[in-house]
Structures are given as C-alpha cells and as structure tokens.
Amino acid sequence: MDVTESKQETTTRTGEEFRAAYVAIIGRPNVGKSTLMNRLLQQKLSIVSPRPQTTWHRILGIRNLPQAQLLFLDTPGMHKSDAVFNQGLVRSARRAMADADIILWLLDASRPEDPDDQLILEQLREGKPTRATVILALNKVDLVEKPLLLPMIDRWREAYPVAEIIPISATKGDNLARLESVLVQHAPVGRPFYPPEELSDRPERFFIAESLREKVFGLLHEELPYAVAVQVEAVRAREGRDLTDVEATIYVEKESQKAIVIGAGGQMLKKIGALARPEIEAMLETRVFLRLWVKVLEGWRTDQVALKRFGYLEP
Ligand code: GDP
Ligand code: MG
Q1: Ligand nearest to the CA of 36
Q2: pTM to 2 decimals?
Q3: Distance (Å, rounded) from C-alpha 33 to C-alpha 156?
Q4: 3-state SS assignment for residue 120
Q5: Among the residues of 15-80, which ranges form H helices?
Q6: Which of 171, 175, 179 to mutate to test the pocket of ligand 1 (most atoms within 8 A of CB)?
Q7: Contact 62, 70 (CB under 8 A)
Q8: Most buried of 21, 46, 103, 175, CB within 10 angstroms?
C-alpha cells in the first residue's frame, strides 16, 4: 500500500483537516479479520499491541497517516454455536462496535452464504451501535470468479444499508489502498487520539492509557457517553524488584463526572484499577502498583492548553 496515494486522496477531499477514528473490524471467525489488520499495519508508522492473544480482549493497532489516525480493533469472531464460550466473544465484539466510529464488517466472499454472518446482520439491525458508520469489505476475492462479485455486492447492499462495499483480498493486498482511503474519508474530523511521536517512543504508555480508557468506557458508557482522557504520569520499575509503579490520571470535564468515576467510597475507581491492572501486568511482565487519580479539566476536549498538555498539539 502506498502512503502517498492515501495522502493525496485525503488532501483533495478534506483540505487540511485531520481525521481520527476507532475502526472495529468485525466478522465471523475465519473471514480474515486478523490477516487484514496485520496487513494494514505492516508498515511504517503503525503500532500493534505487544501481547495480543493473552492480554487484550480486543487487539488494537494504530495506523498513523499524514492526515489521519486509524485505530483498529480486531475482535474475536461471533458465531452462534458453543453458546457459553461465545457469549464472551459476542460481548467483546459488541463492546468494540459500541466504542467505534467505523465498523469494518468483513465477509468471506468465497463463502457468502454462511449463517453466522446473519448473526452480525441481526446485531447491526438491532441498531447497536448507533453512531458508527458501517463499511462492508468482501474479503478473499482472489478465490472468487469475477462475474459472481457484482451480484454478491448487490445482494448485500439490499440486506443492510452500509456506507460502502469494497471487494478486497487481505492476503494478496488487492484494493487495500482503496479500503484505507475510504476509512479515512469516513473518519470524523478530529485530532489524533494519541500523538504519533509518543507512540513510537513509548508504546507501553499508550497501551496503559488505552486499557484504562477501555475500562472506564466499559463500566460507565451510559453515564459518561464521551470518551475520557487518560494521561499516564509515570511508569517506574522498582530496582531489583518484580514491581512497577504506574501512575495515571483520568480526566473528566465536570465535578459530577468526577464523582461518577470515583464512585461511592471510591468503589468505581477501585474497579477500574482492578480490571486494568492484570492487563498492564501482563504487558509489562511485572507486578504493578497502580495509582489512579481523577481530575476535572473543564472543556478539555476543546481547550487548546489542555490538548497541548496531552500532547495532541505541538507546544
Ligand atoms: P479471522 O478469524 O477473521 O481473524 O481470520 P484470519 O485472519 O485468521 O484468517 C483465516 C484464514 O483465511 C487464514 O488461513 C488466512 O490466511 C485466510 N485468508 C485471509 N484473508 C484471505 C484472502 O484475502 N484470501 C485468501 N485466499 N485467504 C485469506
Ligand atoms: Mg482473528
């Protein structure tokens, strides 16, 4: 894939506006979600979570483009069989869907009649998530006779009103540059969620912040529908000991939100820490002493000074 090509596309269509989006890749098992994500991230300026299988419920990778930042969430597949085991997977996929700006729905074009695809269709039709744009990619087109593709595209267009349908091959790389530029086009205008310089330097800080942000969102998305900001203040290994001190601040916009994040008697903040700590420990491969603060920074989402402080703007 060619960065220059994407850049031109972005510049002509959006002027100089930067775009940033969480992109949840969903689809039944074996449609090629992981292959696609790896392929999209197999290039400079990308970052992938260090221990995908063991620690991260949803695997996250970031593609930094000159005009956009795409944060990919690879989700476990959804299918109907094996009910109990899959409840967890479905929950995790649903959460990734709810958290996303764009849902990239993958189908296997060589097996277009799989009943498990219907499960996803049902989820989308239920109206969850509401705010995300859905883009459908028909993967594995290298295995499909060309004349079969157009009718297939038409059929899916009728089944659900997606924003775009794009035939791709994740293994061969066919049409991936186009897919990427379509994702950028549909990404909301906004600053990067994470400053690229910080990512290349200290990815572990990013994953700590992301783990905490995910827990806050998972526990409180009804009460706090907008993303909170998390700043990791310190990651200090204690010399000669299997222990790392991690300090982070969760920023909210109002006192009332601060009370919600802390919870009665500090219970909610404890819960957030208890859920995030094992993930951080697995990533750092040490035990972790986690200290969390909650601070109010009024209007941080629009405040230039605050954005600089979080590193979202050049100082
Ligand atoms: P996931 O379960 O959705 O994450 O699927 P994987 O990424 O693990 O892929 C499942 C299988 O499909 C693997 O054997 C991949 O090599 C294969 N696969 C993925 N994309 C393509 C493609 O574009 N063409 C072909 N022929 N195979 C693919
Ligand atoms: Mg996978």
Answers
A1: 1
A2: 0.69
A3: 19
A4: helix
A5: 33-41, 52-55
A6: 171
A7: yes
A8: 103
